[in-house]
Design brief:
The chain is α+β, with helices and mostly antiparallel strands and about 250 residues long. It is built from 5 helices and 15 strands. The strands form 3 sheets. Strands 1, 2, 4, 5, 7, 8, 9, 14 and 15 form a 9-stranded antiparallel sheet that branches. A 3-stranded antiparallel sheet has the order 3-12-11, with no helix packed on it. A hairpin with a 6-residue loop joins β14 and β15. The longest helix is centred in the first third of the chain and has 24 residues. The mean pLDDT is about 95.
Length: about 250
């Protein structure tokens, strides 16, 4: 989507507020012993309070309202009454929704309670890399150059990037052009970010894997070489200067 009117910007701001607040509150709500289904239902309740609808459910028929992935699950984890949270879990929550015809997306990985499994370094790296990427995005910048920055920053910290997952355009639907905003440099990609375009920028920073495979449930993705992954995501508007971070209130950099 390209923002052309103040009304469109206001619509994107409201949708982004809904997903950002929901993500922030879900992270606060998560407690050891709680099931991922309970956490998902809390998120659904908050989205409903805004009048927003789950984007993965609307678009793909996802069997939940929000993607909740635990430990070795990289993304698209299905909320379940059989999966309970534990201290030290690496949790990823991805919240995307539609509100009055506008769509927004954001996500965060975090450690639940004490970092007994030493995941915090990975989480911190992912947060830093997302900030570095967004700080360098403006109209005219090559999409592949941001991918190169993300992979370079990951390597500096001893991590890898997942090469078959990426950010995407968003606004009037969940996934739009430009697609495949990857975490590495695709030398064949000559596209550039354009002014007033709306994109979801997300990290996929991993310990040992470079590709994600889908499990038999048809949704949950795990690493081709195991290990763990952290993801952080903001929906932004590209400008001639620093981007407008529409989902900033989720507080993932705090």
């Amino acid at each position: 989507m390209t923002i052309t009117t103040k009304k469109e910007l206001a619509g994107m701001q409201k949708a982004s507020e809904a997903v950002a607040y929901t993500l922030k509150e879900m992270i606060k709500f998560a407690q050891p012993g709680m099931t991922t289904k309970e956490l998902d239902e809390q998120g659904a309740k908050i989205l409903s309070g805004f009048g927003a609808k789950s984007a993965p459910k609307l678009t793909y028929g996802f069997p939940g309202h929000n993607c909740i992935s635990i430990n070795n699950e990289f993304c698209h984890g299905i909320p379940s009454n059989r999966r309970s949270l534990k201290i030290g879990d690496l949790i990823n929550i991805d919240v995307s929704a539609e509100l009055n015809g506008f769509w927004a997306d954001n996500g965060s990985s975090f450690v639940l309670g004490e970092d007994i499994n030493q995941h915090q370094g990975l989480v911190n790296a992912s947060k830093h890399i997302l900030k570095a990427a967004i700080d360098n995005i403006k109209s005219g910048v090559r999409i592949s150059d941001i991918g190169h920055l993300m992979e370079s920053e990951a390597r500096k910290r001893g991590y890898k990037v997942i090469k078959n997952l990426g950010g995407h355009g968003i606004g009037r639907s969940l996934h739009e052009q430009p697609d495949e905003l990857l975490n590495y440099r695709n030398r064949f990609d000559q596209r550039r970010f354009t002014k007033n375009s709306v994109v979801a920028i997300e990290t996929f920073i991993a310990t040992t894997s470079t590709y994600a495979d889908t499990l038999n449930d048809g949704w949950t993705m795990v690493g081709d070489r195991g290990g763990y992954m952290a993801q952080h995501e903001h929906t932004i508007v590209v400008t001639d200067k620093k981007p407008i971070i529409l989902t900033k209130m989720n507080g993932i950099w705090n």
